[in-house]
Amino acid sequence: MSAVVPRTPTLPANDILGLDADLLDEERMLRDTVRAFVQRELLPDVPQWFEDGELPRELAQRFGELGLLGMHLEGYGCAGASPTAYGLVCAELEAGDTGLRSLVSVQGSLVMFPIHRFGSEEQKQEWLPRMATGEALGCFGLTEPDAGSDPGSMRTTARRDGSDWILNGTKMWITTGSIADVAIVWAKTEDGIRGFLVPRGTPGFTTQDIHHKLSLRASVTSELLLDDVRLPASAELPGARGLGGPLTVLGEARLGIVFGANGAARACLEAAVEYARTRIQFGKPIGSFQLTQAKLAEMGARVAAGQLLALRLARMKEAGTLKPEHVSLGKYSNVSAALAVAREARTIMGANGITLEYPVMRHAANLETVLTYEGTHEVHSLVLGRALTGLNAFS
Catalyzes what (predicted)? Predict the structure, then answer.
C-alpha cells in the first residue's frame, strides 16, 4: 500500500477566517513579536514549570521589557495600546500557558488598572511606573474562603482607628500573592466596600502558598492573611466606593480571558492537526479518517467562532459600546468552547495526549480553572439570562 502524502492545508489552523487582514499593522506586529517570544523563550520551559508547580518571578521583568504590563493603560510608563492589541497578546501568552497570561492580566488589569482608575496621584506615581517594568509585582485580593461568586458577603473588614485603617480577614486563591510587592485588598467598612493598597512586609500581613493544585500549576496561588493590619489613610483607593469598584476591575480583566482561552484552544487545534497529519495507523495518517476529520472540523469551527467573537468585543470596547453583558457572553462562550476543543484534541492524540510532550492535557487542566475564576460559567449564564429577559435570577 502506497503512503498517503498530505497536501498543504488550504485553511491555516491559527487563522481559519483570515482575520489577520482585519488587524492594524501595529497590532499584527505586536502579536507576532509575542508569539515568537513565547514559542522561542518560554514554551521549552513551560512543561517543567507546570510539573514543578512554579512560575519564575523574573518573568515579570521580561514581560515588562516587552511593554506588556499595563499595556492598555495610558501614561506612567504604560504603552497605551488598544484593547485589541492587549487581547491578541493575551491569546499568544495563553497559547503558551494560562499561567503566563494570568501573570500579565493580573498585573495589568487587576492591579494596575484599579490604581490607574481609582488611585490617588501619589499612588499612581509610586506604583505604576515600577509595575510597568516588572520591578514591582501586585496581586488582587477579593475572593475569600466563603465568598467567591458572592463577593458582597466578604468577611474581611476595615475599621477606622483615628486617621488609620485596621484590616482583618483572609483572601483565598490569589494569583502571585506570595511574590507580590503590594496587594489590593477589598474590605467591608461602615460605608461599604473599599480597596486598600497593602505593601509586602506590613505588620500583620502574611501569605501562604496553595500547593497540590491539579490545574494552573505554572502559577503562584496564595492565601492572604490580615491580622490587625494597620494602614495609613493614604493606603485607601480614593476613587473606589462600593462593590462596583472590584466588579469594574473584573470586567476590565475578562476581555483578556476571552482572548486567552481562545489562544489555548487554538494551540490545541494546531497540535491536533499536526498530529493527525503525521500519525500513521492502518497504513495512513489518522487525519484521513472521517471520524478524526469530523472532530477537527468541530474544533476548527469553535476556534474560528471564538476568534471572531473576541475581536468583535475588542473593537466594541474601542468604540465605547461594550457592555458587561457582552464580556460575560465572551467568557461564557470562549472558555467552554476552549475546554471542549482541548478535550477533543486529547482524544485524537490517544495516550500521547496525556503527556507533557504535547500541550493539550495541560491546557485542558488549566481551562478547568479558567471556567470558574473571574465569574463562574453559571454566574455568567445568569448575567446573560438577565440581559435577555430583564428578570434577575440572582435574588
Answer: glutaryl-CoA + oxidized [electron-transfer flavoprotein] + 2 H(+) = (2E)-butenoyl-CoA + reduced [electron-transfer flavoprotein] + CO2
